[in-house]
Amino acid sequence: MPMPELLSILGNTGEFISSLVVLITLVYLSIQTRNINRQNQAEARYAFVESMAEINMTIAHSKKASSVWRRGLDSLGNLDEDERMQFFMFVGQYANCWAVMYQLHVDRMLPDLQWQIVRNDIVSILGTEGGKSFWADGGITAFNQEFVNWVQKELATGDKPYDMSGMASEGSRYAD
C-alpha cells in the first residue's frame, strides 16, 4: 500500500476515534450535569427544611415565644410593642425562606410536592390577621415584585389550608 493511502487511512481512523472520544465525553458530561442538578435540588430541599426547622424550634422551645406567635397570628392588638417586633421578626424570617423557596420552585429546583407545603404555609400564615398586618405593613414592599404578585394572587383565593392558632386554642379538639 502506498504511503499516501496509508496516511489517509490512518488519518480517517484517527478522526473516527476522536469523534468517539468526543461522543463519550459528551455523554459523561451530560450524566455529570444531571447528577449535579439532582444534588442541587436535594441541597435546596435540605436548606428549606433546615431554615424552617430553625424558626419553628425557636418558637417551640420557648413558651413566651410560642405565646407571642399564637397571639400575633390572631391579632397584633394582642401584643405589646416589643412582642409585635418579635412577631414581625418571626414572620419576616419565614417570608425570607418562602421567597427563596419560591425562586427555587420557579427555577424547577424545588419539587411540586415540597412547594405545595411551602405554599400552604404562606397562605395559612399570611392569611391570619397578624400575617395580613405583616404583609401590609412592610412585607409587600420587602420582596421582589414577582413573588409579591404571586403571594397577592394566592391570598386573594381565600384558601387557608390550616389554622395554626386555631389548632392550639382552647376550643380545638387538641385542647385538654
Description:
- The chain has 176 residues and is an all-alpha fold.
- The chain has one domain.
- 81% of the residues lie in helices and 0% in strands.
- The protein has seven helices and no strands.
Terminal CA distance reads 98 Å
Quickly give the structural class: mainly alpha
What average pLDDT do the residues reach? 87
Mind summarizing the main beta sheet? none
Gyration radius, rounded: 27 Å
Morphology call: rod-shaped
SSE string = HHHHHHH
Helix content: over 70%
Question: What count of helical segments does DSSP give?
Answer: 7
Question: What's the count of strands?
Answer: 0
The residue ranges in which pLDDT falls below 50 over 5 or more consecutive positions are: none
Number of domain units = 1
* Percent of residues in beta strands: under 5%
Key words describing this protein structure:
about 180 residues; mainly alpha; 7 helices; about 80% helix; rod-shaped
